[in-house]
Amino acid sequence: MIEVNELTKRYGRTTAVNGLTFTVRPGHVTGFLGPNGAGKSTTLRMLLGLTEPTSGTATVDGHLFRDHPRGLRHVGALLDAHDVHGGRSAAAHLSALARSNGIPQRRVDEVLEEVGLAPAARRRIGGFSLGMKQRLGIATALLGDPPVLLFDEPVNGLDPEGMRWVRGLFRRLAAEGRTMFVSSHLMSEMQNTAEHLIVIGRGKLIADESVTEFAARGTRQSVTVRTPDPTALAAALEAEGASVQPDASGAEEWLTVTGLSAARIGELASHHRTVLLELATRTSSLEEAFMELTADSVEYLAGDSR
Amino acid sequence: MTSTTAQQTVASTAVHVAEPGARFRDLLAAEWIKLWSLRSISWAFGASALVIIAINISAAVADYNNWPTYNEGIRALFVPIWAMRDAFTVGACLVLILATGSIGALTIVGEYSTGQIRTTFAAVPARRSVVAAKMAVVTAVMLIYGTVVAGTSFGVTQAILSGRGIGLSLGYSGALRAVAASALLAPVCALVGMGLGALIRHTATTLVTFTGILLLLPFLLNDRHRWSSAILHALPRSAWERLVQMGDPFKSAPYPATTSGSWIVYAAWPLAAAVVAVVAVHRHDP
Fold it and tell me: Is there a contact between B156 and B53 (Cβ–Cβ < 8 Å)?
């Protein structure tokens, strides 16, 4: 179990993490979401004792991580797949880490096999692709067979097969009763693996709830209608209590309607003798719920759209 | 960093067992693996050793060949002063300082520049123990390297010179001191490199700083003035020069260095470097 309590980190005048409090429980995958620069990596670094918090605490099973002489046996972590010396072979890299934690050498071969790097074990890490480095990072995290696992953006650089493998692996590790805390800036990634979500933006907690609850925030259904006479149809629908907006695309013929079902809109159009060219129900995805929720806390936004 | 003996449980057991204390021996073993799994390190050791020994041998061969042309003045001073200078030439000393300092610095800077240090500390959160283990391993390896290089240089050069009856034996007064000082220069410089590396954490800046202080600074100072010679004698390179010097027939320096002072310099630099490395790594978040 991971417990984060009033965790704060300031760098000069910038507050990277601001009074975060949450708990990550064992037995399922907990997604750690937020836009780029939200403070996810800083939080994970503080959990691992790599960064000293300005105030507050982050503990693993009730202990500060830095109090463990053998970190790998308590927390397995993949923060950045590039955090390896490119001059060593994968086997030598893992051997040194295993030795430092008193983990038997055969465990190195096991995790290399597990992540599919056994054939590349003797090759220099410097020649690895990002996907291979991610696999090596996952192997490192698994080395100590730890009860708690942290992953920062683990699917970066993985091919579709690799992504599917990671999802399966994470579900299996969670099913074994481990605490799985996986960060991502991609909501769609979490949709497939996580049961619980912790969402942060600009260092603050935005949501701490199950994926089902989180998705419910975004399940406002809307109906997209295309008609040659949008003004008349909009008036008719609004008379029935619907909320009508020009479609986000800006095309004149399109309307986005909330508050009425597609069937009811069809009936009303027929009643008012309005031609419908298209009619479709849209359920907003988890991705949209996420975008909506974090819209105010996006640190870096492309272009000058805001 | 308690390296106790009551930990036979560890090696083959599964995880989740009751955990014995941090094992310094495990950290030493890990650093040993890390050192030798980098091909560049083995190459640096091998290549620099060959260059150093070759420089010294060529000096001895030159004196062997030129001996018949030397005048009485040179011949009178050759044993032991010039004979020892063939065993440990200044050029070879500069190569030794540069090679060992760079290797030492890279064992630490290499971790910071690649990001490996975060993986290392995520595995072993006790940063000071990790650095202490790293320094212990490098010191031990450097001691062996220094002994091999200094011993071979002395043995081969003196064997060549003995063909003219002008070689020294290890039993000659001061010879053992010179060999020991040359051997110890390797761990001294490696530790200084590690200290600077931990403090600077940037490859190029670390190597330039190291070269500036240990190799170039002695050229900018002279022993004609009190303050200048005080700084000069406090540098490892000058200390080495004093310790391998077999005599000063011309009494040229008004403020000569002492051998005991030079041994203190040999002890102070690595000790200070070790303290700096441990404190810097502990305080600075990787």
Answer: yes
